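Hey team,

Filing this mostly as a record. A colleague (T.K.) asked me to run one chain through the structure pipeline before their review meeting, and I want the input and output archived in the tracker in case anyone asks later how it was produced. No errors, nothing strange. Just documentation.

Input sequence:
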Amino acid sequence: MKNKFQLLGELGASEFQHIQGSLLQHLQGTRNLLSQWNAPQFLQDAGLYHAVYGTSGFDASLLSVKQRYDVAQIIGDDAEELVYQYCACSRKDFFTKLLDGAKKPELINRFTGDAYYLSEDLLRNFCELTAANEIEIATSNPAFIDKHGTYLHRLFDKMSPFLSEAANAKTKATFLAA
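Output structure:
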């Protein structure tokens, strides 16, 4: 069987442009950060596939949400559920609720319009994935930090109870000076 990274390439991730190169490079970089933080394998796999259905910040999608079963066959059910929630999240609404002090923000699903709360574990993994994604984008990108750093510093400060020590340290090191 082909590895998860090769399958992403075959799905066309190397063809999509992202902020600093190909989507494939970004997905691999996000996965690598999660690996450095000793995240469980399913979370690393979610990092590698975190934009497969598109996100509210990256509209392009490699697959339709109708193909969730196929993605789960590649990365497992837990990783796919996290990927789906990450892609489905209306970030503006979710992040605003966090910044407004919500201890458990409601997620608005941009695919269905439904509103619901993530389980505690899913929320923690969602936040960890969010930190890895934003840090990967910010790495070697002073313009991104200049534009979004202050906002992301505030966001990750509110998100800190849900993040690992490694993610908290890296978000502070990346966005504190912004």
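Quick notes for T.K.: The longest strand covers residues 106-108. The radius of gyration is 15 Å.
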